[in-house]
Inverse folding.
């Protein structure tokens, strides 16, 4: 009798799981259909990119983007929409930069751009000999005797044989971020950094840099040079070590922070309204292009998650929030402030998903999660395979959701195909025409599907004494 009972229970469980899996499959299909056939993300990105444009923290463009996002979220019919104040740094590029390489009977203009946070040159610019290095570690090798009075040229390229292009980026971005601070210690008068770009072109790529605690009188100008420009300069230096470089920049750092906002919208949970799941991207962008991939795509995909849930008449158990963070690019103030306020108000965040890797074809997700929750994620892989989503790996989430990390919280990052991302990243060609409508919509549906599954099945409880898994 006992065996018969156990058999019946097992059969019932299998039937239940099969029915639930079928229900989940239908729900995911509905999200993909709604996004691909009647999506809003591409229209939103068109407006954000082409009507508002660049959105550097503290700029008029950023302020316009905040108001636009608030109005669009209100139009969806969410339960709550509000602005969360946050103070952000302000930096302006000013007039276009000028640079040329000067050798014997040769003067060639090269494409450069100031790095975000750099000081300006003098009004007349600077001219100096150049010393080429492959990274920060090279500075000590040359020492003050060979560096003082010169411009340090960091020419370490992204490693092209790494399939994960973000690893290639991470392998050389330190020379951009800390290059001026370190070169200044050896008496350099400026730095130029090879653009973080895997292809050869004439587009300089900006990005954040920092002087750390370096006194103002020791700070030196810092600029990015295009990959073609870097190759030219390196070639000329090999022919003539006395080759000189001229650089003129007009950028400005403001001493005081200025007010801005995170934009937040919420669908209140039907069963667990005090447990929050977040999906988001950063509203600010660099100023050379219109920030369509970085991170306009993540902004509109995150907005679309909540719109798709409304369109599908899906009523989540947990409260689902979209958070459009301000100042990811040069300070992370928005992400830090959101987590700070959440902690102060005693809010319980159980899951957060970020999209900040471009609007290309989605491949899957990376996770910052414990073993139990990652095992749950892996059980969902068959639901995503019809959409060619195969990448489910441990290995981090996103910069803005990172401050939400607490024991038991699952963080995730959308992972699109990244092979073309750094062709556009922080450059003037990060524009709306570089985003494919269908790829963008697939990403939005993929994000919605993951949020739905976590909302349906919840986050698994902590395992005592079990450490979070990280790659």
């Amino acid at each position: 009798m006992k065996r018969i009972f156990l058999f019946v229970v097992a059969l019932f469980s299998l039937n239940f799981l099969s029915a639930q899996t079928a229900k989940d499959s239908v729900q995911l299909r509905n999200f993909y259909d709604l996004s691909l056939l009647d999506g809003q993300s591409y229209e939103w990105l068109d407006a954000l990119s082409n009507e508002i444009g660049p959105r550097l923290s503290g700029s008029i463009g950023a302020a316009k983007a905040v108001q636009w996002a608030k109005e669009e979220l209100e139009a969806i019919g969410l339960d709550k929409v509000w602005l969360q104040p946050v103070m952000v740094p302000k930096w302006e590029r000013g007039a276009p930069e000028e640079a040329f390489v000067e050798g014997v009977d040769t003067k060639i203009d090269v494409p450069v751009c100031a790095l975000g946070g750099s000081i300006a040159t003098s009004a007349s610019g600077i001219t100096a000999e150049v010393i080429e290095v492959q990274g920060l570690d090279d500075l000590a090798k040359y020492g003050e005797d060979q560096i003082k009075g010169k411009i340090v040229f960091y020419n370490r390229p992204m490693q092209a044989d790494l399939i994960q292009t973000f690893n290639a980026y991470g392998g050389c971005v330190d020379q951009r971020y800390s290059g001026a601070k370190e070169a200044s210690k050896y008496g350099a008068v400026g730095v130029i950094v090879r653009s973080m770009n895997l292809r050869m072109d004439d587009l300089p790529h900006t990005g954040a840099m920092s002087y750390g605690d370096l006194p103002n009188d020791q700070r030196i100008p810092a600029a990015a040079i295009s990959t073609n420009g870097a190759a030219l300069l390196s070639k000329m230096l090999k022919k003539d070590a006395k080759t000189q470089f001229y650089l003129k920049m007009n950028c400005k750092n403001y001493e005081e922070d200025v007010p801005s906002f995170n934009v937040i919208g919420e669908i209140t949970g039907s069963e667990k309204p005090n447990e929050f799941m977040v999906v988001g991207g950063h509203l600010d962008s660099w100023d050379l292009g219109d920030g369509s991939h970085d991170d306009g795509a993540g902004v509109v995909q995150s907005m679309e998650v909540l719109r798709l849930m409304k369109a599908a008449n899906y009523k989540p158990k947990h409260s689902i929030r979209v958070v459009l963070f301000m100042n990811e690019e040069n300070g992370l103030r928005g992400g830090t402030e959101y987590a700070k306020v959440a902690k102060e108000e005693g809010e319980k965040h159980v899951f957060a998903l970020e999209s900040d890797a471009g609007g290309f074809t989605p491949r899957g997700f990376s996770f910052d999660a414990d073993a139990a929750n990652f095992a749950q994620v892996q059980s969902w892989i068959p639901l995503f395979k019809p959409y060619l989503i195969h990448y489910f790996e441990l290995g981090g989430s996103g910069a803005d959701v990172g401050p939400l990390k607490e024991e038991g919280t699952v963080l995730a990052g959308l992972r699109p195909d990244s092979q073309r991302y750094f062709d556009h990243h922080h450059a003037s060609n990060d524009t709306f025409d570089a985003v494919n409508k269908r790829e963008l919509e697939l990403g939005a549906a993929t994000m919605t599907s993951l949020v739905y599954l976590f909302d349906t099945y919840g986050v698994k409880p902590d395992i005592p004494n079990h450490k979070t898994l990280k790659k």
Notes: Residues 165 and 372 are 29 Å apart (CA to CA).
